[in-house]
Structures are given as C-alpha cells and as structure tokens.
C-alpha cells in the first residue's frame, strides 16, 4: 500500500466532484510519489512519509441494478463519455431553465470534464483536439453564464479569457467577460469588451447599450456613496 496516499487523494477528489487525476502528470507511479512532496492532506503526507499496514472498513450504503444510475465521468470509457456529453448538456439546460443554476453548472462541469479527459489524449492543435475543443467551448460559456448569476466573477474572467485566447471572434465570451469586468469595477476592460462585441456584431447595440447604461448608473451611485463616506475626512 505504499502508493495508497495518491489513491486516497484521487478518491477524495472524486468525492469533491473533481478530476481524480488533478495535479498529476504523465509519469510512472514512483515518480508521482516523489514529485508530490505534499498531497494537500496532513494525514496522507504523514502516511506517505511513514508507510504502514492499513485496515479498511467498507460500508455498503445501497445496491443499485446495472444501468439504473448515471456513472460519474471518471468511471466512463471514452465511448461512454462521448455518448454522455449531449445528455448531460441537455440536463444542464433543463436545470438552468428551471432556475436551478448551481445544479446546472455542475452538469456543464461534468460534460466539460468528459471532453477534457478525451482531449488530454490528443495532440494539441490536431484535428481531433480542435474538434473536442469546439465542443467544450459552448459548454464552458454555459458554465460561465451560471457563474455570472452566482456572482463568481473572477472564474468567469479566467474562463472567458481562455476561450478568447483561442477564438478571438467569440462574441459570447466577450460579452460575458465584459459583464464580469463591470461587476468587479474593471471599467476600462468592460468597455473594451463591449466595444469588441459591437465591432463583431453591430446588431447587438441595444443589449450592449443597456449594459453600459447599467455600468454608468452603478458608477454614479458609487461616486455618491464615496462622497458621503469620505465627507470631511481631510478636514479633521
């Protein structure tokens, strides 16, 4: 069980809804063991330093018939991942329409994880890699829309920027990033993104104008609040 700390970390990632291979690179198990000087869990770090016999208690929570449950992405074969993505995407869209934004984001994340796992096996820039990336992009934009509503703006900034680094003409990525910039008071960046949206599609002017008016109104409110907050501060 010398490699169990790495196994345990993967299982904990799965329990948290993360990729079980997160943070690992392609190399042999011994190299992985030496490279990970810290696994992020003190008990696993201690076990890695001082291997010892382990006793496992396994509790059966429930028994499900084959085919009666949806597998987690990490447990699927490559073919199953490809088949599952459209279904997971559809489930996410339905949850979003019902106003269940957090649940929808989790579905989009699962679909992205399936495709990312497949993409890792392809040569970056190859036709198959690009095809998978083009399937990931709309899912990632849906995920960003959920994160906008959850007010997780910096995550939106990161993801939209990653999309725009590859697809400079993606209007939705510019628009969502513009809204995120506006939310965190990056005024110049928001204005630049909204200007890019108009340059790519002038028909969106009414929507962009609405966002800019909203930003200007928030700026006026903020200026008024600041004046009240700092009134007389320099005369004391």
Automatic annotation (TrEMBL):
Instruction: Name the Gene3D superfamilies for this protein.
Output: 3.10.50.40, Tetratricopeptide repeat domain
Repeat positions for TPR: 171-204
Q: Name one GO molecular function term.
A: peptidyl-prolyl cis-trans isomerase activity
- The segment(s) forming the AIP/AIPL N-terminal FKBP-type PPIase domain are 4-60
Q: Where in the cell is it found?
A: Cytoplasm
The Gene Ontology CC terms held by the record are:
cytoplasm
The cross-references to SUPFAM superfamilies, in alphabetical order and at most eight, read: TPR-like
The domain of life for this entry's organism is Eukaryota
Q: Does the keyword NADP apply?
A: no
Q: Which UniProt keywords apply?
A: Cytoplasm, Phosphoprotein, Repeat, TPR repeat
Q: What does the subunit section of this Swiss-Prot or TrEMBL entry state?
A: Interacts with RET in the pituitary gland; this interaction prevents the formation of the AIP-survivin complex.
Q: What's the stated role of this polypeptide? A: May play a positive role in AHR-mediated (aromatic hydrocarbon receptor) signaling, possibly by influencing its receptivity for ligand and/or its nuclear targeting.
Q: Give the protein's recorded name.
A: AH receptor-interacting protein
User: Which organism's genome codes for this protein?
Assistant: Thalassarche chlororhynchos (Atlantic yellow-nosed albatross)
Q: What's the name of its gene?
A: Aip
